[in-house]
Amino acid sequence: MQFSAWEIIKQGLTGNKGWKPHWRDPEPKSAYDVIIIGGGGHGLATAFYLAKEHGITNVAVLEKGYIGGGNVGRNTTIVRANYGLPGNSEFYSHSLKLWEGMEQELNYNTMMSQRHVLNLCHSDGQRDAFTRRANTMLIQGDDAEVLSRRQVRDYAPFLNFDNERFPIRGGLLHRRGGTARHDAVAWGYARGADMRGVDIIQNCEVTGFRIEQGRIKGVETTRGFIGAGKVGMAVAGRTTQVGQMAGLRLPIESHVLQAFVTEGLKPIIPGVVTFGMGHFYLSQSDKGGLVFGGDLDFYNSYAARGNLPAVEHVMQAGMSMVPMIGKARVLRSWGGIMDMTMDGSPIIDRTPVEGLFLNGGWCYGGFKAVPGSGHVFAHLIATGNHHKASTKHLLNRFETGHVIDEETTGAQPNLH
Ligand SMILES: Cc1cc2nc3c(=O)[nH]c(=O)nc-3n(C[C@H](O)[C@H](O)[C@H](O)COP(=O)(O)OP(=O)(O)OC[C@H]3O[C@@H](n4cnc5c(N)ncnc54)[C@H](O)[C@@H]3O)c2cc1C
Questions:
Q1: What tens digit of pLDDT does each residue of 173-204 get?
Q2: Is the pTM here over 0.85, yes or no?
Q3: Which of 42, 64, 75 for a ligand 1 pocket mutation test, highest count of atoms within 8 Å of Cβ?
Q4: pLDDT value, residue 1
Q5: Residue 75 — φ and ψ, nearest 5°?
Q6: Is the CB of 325 under 6 A from ligand 1?
Q7: Is 372 a pocket residue for ligand 1 (Cβ < 6 Å)?
Q8: Nearest to 177 by CA among 361, 40, 367, 49
Q9: pLDDT for the residue 416
């Protein structure tokens, strides 16, 4: 079914009885050409591009829970291409371009809203670093503007400009950045993949791999063995656990990240505002809720819930930079499991097991990466070669030293 204004009118006039489920609920076949483990944003986008770009449609996405139940439905929906290092710079640029065409490509309203991302700076040194990053973004072909303190005040007058410790000195504005409706992205890719013949199989947990003479033969699941010549892992916070089933010890740790939303308010926040020095960021959803978050909870965990010290830290940082937030009532908080690598950048690569591919280590940045990641991962699985937008996200960079450490914090995942 094609969504269109005409379809909405037709359904409206006929009692909305003709809408179909967005994807089928098939029984797993005994074997597929490709299996993707994980029905989050990355897994679904990969399946979609395998079918659309490479004509590989004998594909199953195996999801242990339900579509949208992982981090793809738990994030704060920020989309941007403002990275500074080779490897990430071209990759996130590629991803943002795909975001800009996503709704047409999927024929699905993902509520992509390029409402800007503003990073605040609080010292001359930080402004120098932002200027350098802005130049990198411009060279990459993306947009960037370095704002003065006065320009930031015009843009977001509600901020606390004279905080004793972090007075606002300026900002980096990325106008093509913004937000999108997170679970609609998962649903849109699921529907697009299903329409092209991909089987999306929910409630099907992968519990092991069948590997013979170093080659993947298929996966053991809670619904029996399913054969495949190629298997792609896209399980985000569970990457280390699933990797371990294939004998892989990966340079990834899992940590909890929490986020918060307030009651709905009239529009007040123009775009996304980040207060990096205080580990705080904020936007406003289309329903009016202030959506905000901060840092990881700092300890390793596979639990999708956090602790009170991180809550207190985020609230304090919010109050110090956006004092008016104190008047809003928090409705909900939640947590998600983050797959943090040793350098804060993702891995999109082959593994030592022939036919087994790895997509993981998304840290804080996996939502904005969804279309780009699916696109380049599908390319790798289909052709055996890395896409030109992702030649540096290699697993062996932690052996060779070619790390992509945006934060320059070294091998301490909870600081990236
Ligand atoms: C609070 C929070 C805020 C965030 N904010 C942002 C943001 O603003 N911008 C941004 O870019 N990123 C953000 N992120 C990060 C982003 O959400 C993740 O990096 C990204 O969603 C991870 O990729 P995914 O969508 O494929 O993961 P998921 O949706 O978690 O998908 C992985 C799937 O694999 C499944 N799975 C796991 N094990 C198995 C198994 N054995 N068998 C079968 N299936 C399995 C899981 O059930 C899950 O559905 C945020 C994350 C959190 C938690």
A1: 999 999 999 999 999 999 999 999 999 999 99
A2: yes
A3: 75
A4: 82
A5: -90, 175
A6: no
A7: no
A8: 367
A9: 85
Residue with tokens 């690598």: 341
**Ligand 1 proximity of 243 Cβ (cutoff 6 Å):** no
Q: Which pLDDT belongs to residue 72?
A: 97
What pLDDT is recorded for position 312? 96
Stretches where the chain sits below pLDDT 50 are: none
Does 362 sit in the ligand 1 pocket, CB within 6 Å? yes
- In short, whether 353's Cβ falls inside 6 Å of ligand 1 is no
Please tell me the predicted confidence (pLDDT) of residue 415.
Answer: 87
- Cβ of 357 below 6 Å from ligand 1: no
Residue pLDDT, tens place only, 320-337: 999 999 999 999 999 999
Q: Which residue has a Cα nearest atom 50 of ligand 1?
A: 75
| Residue 328: both structure tokens together | 């809003």
CA-to-CA separations, 137 to 13, 91, 128, 176, 233, in angstroms, rounded: 48, 12, 14, 12, 30
Q: How far apart are CA 409 and CA 343, in angstroms?
A: 8
Mutation pick for ligand 1 pocket among 71, 174, 375, 376 (CB with most ligand atoms within 8 Å): 71
* Torsion angles phi and psi, residue 54, rounded to 5: -120, 0
Task: Give the containing element (helix H, strand E) for 280.
Answer: strand 280-284
User: Is the shortest distance between the CB of 71 and ligand 1 below 6 Å?
Assistant: yes
Is the CATH number 3.50.50.60 carried by domain 26-81+83-108+182-252+343-383? yes
Give yes or no for residue 23 CB within 6 A of ligand 1. no
Q: Which residues of 56-69 are buried (b: 16+ CB within 10 A; e: fewer)?
A: bbbbbbbbbeebbb
Residue of 234, 227, 237, 213 whose CA lies nearest to 352: 213
